[in-house]
Amino acid sequence: MGPARATVLDVTPYDKIFENNKLWAEEQLRTDPDYFTKLSVSQQPDFLYIGCSDSRVPANQIMGLAPGDVFVHRNVANLVNNVDLNVMSVINYAVRQLDVKHIIVCGHYGCGGVRAAMQPKDLGILNPWLRNIRDVYRFHKQELDGIADETKRYERLVELNVLEQSINIIKTAAVQKSYLARGFPIVHSWVFDLRNGILQDLKLDFVQTLHSIQEVYDLTKE
């Protein structure tokens, strides 16, 4: 008996990845024969982007920037948890080694993590992670409970979560010391709208926020 005929189920998206990769690499070389030579030398990004793991929000593409321009960290609901060694290591490396000038926390409307944190439901291993978002709700409960429309309340929690995670970055020693010594990085709060592809700047006042938290979170003594 000969080999079984391939079915449609045998041809998965995974099988196309390496073909797509070769086509992409060839296209880059057609545009710039030295593309990979330059890319392999080093990275000097001006931006650290901390975003959600959601597959619909690709950092470089929505910012219109090329590989090498953005240092990226992503997790469920774009959290900056002070006991998460992953995100803390990324921030420290980006600030102290890469000298990034801007740190962006970017959430997005339609975030499943934020939605899950609004539900009275046991989500197993996700419970301690999403508790960070529930805490954001607790901090802003009066404002959020005053929003009658559930969708608008959900979208406002997305925004407030981004702002709180941005403040968590400002609390770090790496950011405080670098800003004091060099005037950067500046922390920004963004939300991406999946419905139209537009980024919204929440206009976080970095300097005012830094000054407002220094009484408790000052790590520089200056």
Strand-pairing-aware structural class: alpha/beta
Average pLDDT confidence is: 93
User: What is the tally of helical segments?
Assistant: 10
Termini separation (Å)?
A: 80 Å
Characterize the main sheet.
5 strands, mixed
The oligomeric state of the chains shown is single chain
Q: Any idea what the radius of gyration is?
A: 21 Å
Give the beta-strand count.
5
GO biological process, one term: cellular response to carbon dioxide
Catalytic activity: hydrogencarbonate + H(+) = CO2 + H2O
Keywords: Lyase, Metal-binding, Zinc
GO molecular function, one term: zinc ion binding
Provide the descriptors you would attach to this structure in a database record:
alpha/beta, zinc, 222 residues, 49% helix, 5 strands, 10 helices, 5-stranded mixed sheet, Beta-carbonic Anhydrase, Chain A
Tell me what the structure shows.
The protein has 222 residues and is an alpha/beta fold. The protein has two domains: 30 residues, no CATH class; 174 residues, Beta-carbonic Anhydrase, Chain A, CATH 3.40.1050. It is built from ten helices and five strands. It has a five-stranded mixed β-sheet. A hairpin with a 4-residue loop joins strand 4 and strand 5. The longest helix is centred in the C-terminal third of the chain and has 21 residues. The chain starts with 12 loop residues before the first helix and ends in a 5-residue tail after the last helix. The mean pLDDT is 93.
